[in-house]
Specification:
CATH architecture of the largest domain: Distorted Sandwich
Pfam families: Aldose_epim (PF01263)
Main location: cytoplasm
CATH topology of the largest domain: Beta-galactosidase, Chain A, domain 5
Radius of gyration: 19 Å
Bound molecules: beta-D-glucopyranose
Number of strands: 28
Order of helices and strands: EEEEEEHEEEEEEEEEEEEEEEHEEEEEEE
Helix content: under 10%
Catalytic activity: alpha-D-glucose = beta-D-glucose
Oligomer: single chain
Strand content: 35-45%
Structural class: mainly beta
InterPro entries: Ald1_epimerase_CS (IPR018052), Aldose_1-epimerase (IPR015443), Aldose_1/G6P_1-epimerase (IPR008183), Gal_mutarotase_sf_dom (IPR011013), Galactose_mutarotase-like (IPR047215), GH-type_carb-bd (IPR014718)
Pathway: Carbohydrate metabolism; hexose metabolism
Shape: globular
Distance between the termini: 17 Å
Length: 353
C-alpha cells in the first residue's frame, strides 16, 4: 500500500498570529514523515515493511483540531520544558523555590498546562528531508525561570532514521528535559495492540517509583523482575505480572537507566514479526521511558478512522530521569546562562525479511 498522507489543509490555522502548517519530509528510501509546527508534532511516519507495503508506524489524529482538543496523550509531540513528572510541581534552584502547575494528580507532568506540545513553533524546511523548529519560552512561562530559546531539528535520513536534535539556551538558571512523545505500533497505527512486539532495552536498572509515579530516588536492578528487557522478550510476556511497580503504572511506565558506553547509545530495539519492521532507538540521553500506552482512551479514533485503545502503542521517550530537579543524586537537568543544552535521539528503521 502506498502512503496515505494527511491533508496539509487540515492543519492550517492561525493561532495567536502564528501560522500552523503540516510539513512533509521524504528520504531516498521512500519513507515519509509529516510534522506540524503545532507542538512540533510528528503526525505520521510511513515506513516500508517486508512486503513493500507502507505502514504508518505512529499514532495520531488527522487534523489540528483533534490535536488541540485531545491533548492528554501527547501523541508525537515535543514535550518540555520538563518531560515527565516533577513531584508536587515544586523545585528549588539557587535557594529559590519555583511552583509549577499540578496537572497529574498531585504532580507536574510534561511541562504543565500549556507545554511545548501545545504551542506554535516557528518552522523552516531547509531541505526536503529536514524541518527546523524554534520556540522561545518566556521567563516564568508555566512557572519555569529564564527565557529559554529552544531549537529542534527533525531529519529523515537516507538510512531510514528519524533523527531528532534538541538545543536550548537560557538567560537565567533553569531546568530542561526535552523529549518526543511518539507512540509506535510497528504493525501500523490502529492495527491492534503491541503486546506481541519484541523488545530489548539496554538497561540494567530503572528508577523505581512511588504510587504517584515519582521516582523514589533509588535505582533498582532489573534482575529477576518483569522489567528486565536485557534479553529480547515480547512486551506482553510479563506486563500483567503481580509486581508492585507494574501495578502502579498499570503496565510499563518506567524510566530505564541506559547502560551507556559511548555518547550515542543504543537504548532499545523493538521488532514486529508480521511487518518485519525493526526500530532501533539511539540517544545521548541517560534514560528512556517505556510507556505501554496503558491509559490510551478507547474513545479516541485515529487518523485513518480506526479506534485506539490501551496498549495500542508503546513509547520510548528518551530523557533525563523524572523528578531530577528534586533528586540531586540523578544526572543534572540544570541549565545555566552561557551553557548549551544539546541532545540527539534517532529512531532508526530496518526490515527483516
Ligand atoms: C508518562 C505516562 C503518561 C503518558 C501520557 C508518559 O510519558 O510516563 O505516565 O500517562 O506520558 O501523558
Amino acid at each position: 500500500m502506498a502512503p496515505q498522507l494527511l491533508n496539509p489543509k487540515d492543519f492550517e490555522a492561525l493561532i495567536n498570529g502564528k501560522r500552523v502548517a503540516l510539513y512533509t519530509l521524504k528520504n531516498a528510501q521512500g519513507s515519509i514523515a509529516q510534522i506540524t509546527n503545532y507542538g512540533g508534532t510528528l503526525a505520521s511516519l510511513w515506513i516500508k515493511d517486508k512486503n513493500n507495503n507502507f505502514k504508518d508506524v505512529v499514532l495520531g489524529y488527522k487534523s489540528l483540531h483533534e490535536y488541540q482538543t485531545n491533548p492528554n496523550a501527547y501523541f508525537g509531540s515535543i514535550v518540555g520544558r520538563y518531560a515527565n513528572r516533577i513531584a508536587k510541581g515544586k523545585f528549588t534552584l539557587d535557594n529559590k523555590t519555583y511552583n509549577l502547575a499540578v496537572n497529574n494528580g498531585e504532580n507536574h507532568l510534561h511541562g504543565g498546562t500549556t507545554g511545548f506540545d501545545a504551542v506554535v513553533w516557528d518552522a523552516k524546511q531547509p531541505t526536503g528531508d529536514t524541518l527546523e523548529l524554534t520556540y522561545v519560552s518566556a521567563d516564568m512561562e508555566e512557572g519555569y525561570p529564564g527565557n529559554l530559546a529552544v531549537k529542534v531539528q527533525y531529519h529523515l535520513t537516507d538510512k531510514n532514521a528519524i533523527k531528532i536534535k534538541y538545543w536550548a539556551i537560557t538567560d537565567k538558571t533553569t531546568v530542561v528535559n526535552l523529549t518526543n512523545h511518539s507512540y509506535f505500533n510497528l504493525k501500523g497505527e490502529g492495527n491492534g495492540d503491541i503486546l506481541d512486539h519484541k523488545l530489548q532495552i539496554n538497561a540494567s536498572s530503572f528508577t523505581s517509583v512511588d504510587t504517584t509515579c515519582i521516582p523514589t530516588g533509588e535505582l533498582t536492578a532489573v534482575d529477576d523482575t518483569p522489567l528486565d528487557f536485557r534479553k529480547e522478550k515480547t512486551i506482553g510476556k510479563d506486563i500483567n505480572a503481580d509486581y508492585e511497580q507494574l501495578i502502579i503504572g498499570n503496565g510499563y511506565d518506567h524510566n530505564y537507566v541506559i547502560d551507556q558506553n559511548t555518547t550515542l547509545n543504543l537504548a532499545a530495539t523493538a521488532k514486529e514479526a508480521s511487518t518485519g519492521i525493526t526500530m532501533n532507538v539511539y540517544t545521548t540521553e541517560p534514560g528512556v521511558q517505556l510507556y505501554t500506552g496503558n491509559f490510551i482512551s478507547d474513545k479516541l479514533v485515529g487518523k485513518s478512522g480506526k479506534k485506539y485503545h490501551p496498549r495500542a502503542a508503546f513509547c520510548l521517550e528518551t530523557q533525563h530521569y523524572p523528578d531530577s530537579p528534586n533528586k540531586p543524586q540523578f544526572p543534572t537537568v540544570v541549565l545555566r546562562p552561557k551553557e548549551e543544552y544539546h541532545s540527539v535521539t534517532l529512531y532508526k528503521f530496518s526490515v527483516a525479511k
